[in-house]
Amino acid sequence: MITQRAYAVEPWTVRERSLDLGVLAQSESVFALSNGHVGWRGNLDEGEPHGLPGSYLNGVHELHPLPYAEAGYGYPESGQTVINVTNGKVIRLLVDDEPFDLRYGRLVSHERTLDLRRGVLERVCEWTSPAGSTVRVRSTRLVSLTQRAVAAVAYEVEPVDSRTRVVVQSELVANESLPGPDGDPRAARALKSPLEPEEDLAKDCRLRLVHRTRRSGLRVAVAADHVVDGPERTTTGCESNVDMARLTVTAVLEPGQRLRVEKLVAHGWSATRSRPAMSDQVAAALAAAAHSGW
């Protein structure tokens, strides 16, 4: 149980007024979002530091063998373990060549609010890099309650007191490194890189990764599309490999200017549908989400 005074008591909201890295794993559980189909743990936007990365799809699991010294009637031959699927919520930030990492520099303020009426997680923080550049970061995260395959992040950065070059990296990441599970070592083997790559794509502002679980044979597709709003001369580029797809946005911001990136993420899985069908499914989910708008 978290008893820190950072958590205010307010109607319909859970508000964390400061960040304590000592209870980061617990706060990730408190600020998790889910609609029963897609589940995102409340990890920080930049992915690190973290207690336990978590992106889940209801029903997606991996099998692990259950060997016995002697076979017996009724002994199960395998077990099932929920796995971490492709992470679509990561958005990293570089501030004048310094990575936005709360373990370094000076954290001026940090607040996260889970709005239970609206179903969104909001974050506002102000951070000074080791080189002395101060930025204000705002993000809003949601898992849709009307389009079950869709989640979204709106990410905004602005300099506080000086001209600043910023680089925002929006990513899809598969087979993330996870802390070793306690207990059954057989499950630990199943959780280590459980997704085999089948397709990766990065084109314009759209990203896609398709994987298949090694033993249970479930195909998982995750895709993302972006809307970028920044000052003149804002540039974008994209790249992908088997376990990562990335959109990079670069801008030079004056005080008062903002760079905003809206990220829509679509998820899908099936035990029977083909790779092209799964790619089309998440592409269609993105199109529907874009039509609905933020």
What does this protein look like?
The structure is a single chain. Helix content is about 10%, strand content about 45%. The chain contains three helices and 20 strands. The strands form four sheets. A ten-stranded antiparallel β-sheet has the order 1-2-10-11-12-13-20-17-16-15. Strands 9-8-14-19-18 form a five-stranded antiparallel β-sheet, with no helix packed on it. The radius of gyration is 20 Å and the shape is globular. The mean pLDDT is about 95. One of its GO terms (molecular function) is carbohydrate binding. Pfam families: Glyco_hydro_65N (PF03636). This is Glycoside hydrolase family 65.
The coarse overall form would be globular
Helix content: 10-25%
> How does the major sheet shape up?
10 strands, antiparallel
Determine the CATH superfamily: Glycoside hydrolase, family 65, N-terminal domain
Compute the number of strand runs: 20
Radius of gyration: 20 Å
Find the CATH topology.
Answer: Beta-galactosidase, Chain A, domain 5
What pattern of helices and strands is seen along the backbone?
EEHEEEEEEEEEEEEHEEEEEEH
Q: What is the beta-strand fraction? A: over 45%
Tell me the span between the first and last alpha carbons: 34 Å
Q: How confident overall, as mean pLDDT?
A: 93
- CATH 2nd-level architecture: Distorted Sandwich
Specify the structural class.
mainly beta
Tally of discrete structural domains? 1
The CATH C-level name is Mainly Beta
Tally of DSSP helical segments? 3
Instruction: List low-pLDDT spans.
Output: none
Strand order of the largest sheet: 1-2-10-11-12-13-20-17-16-15
Organism: Streptomyces griseoflavus Tu4000
Protein name: Glycoside hydrolase family 65
GO molecular function: carbohydrate binding; hydrolase activity, hydrolyzing O-glycosyl compounds
Keywords: Hydrolase
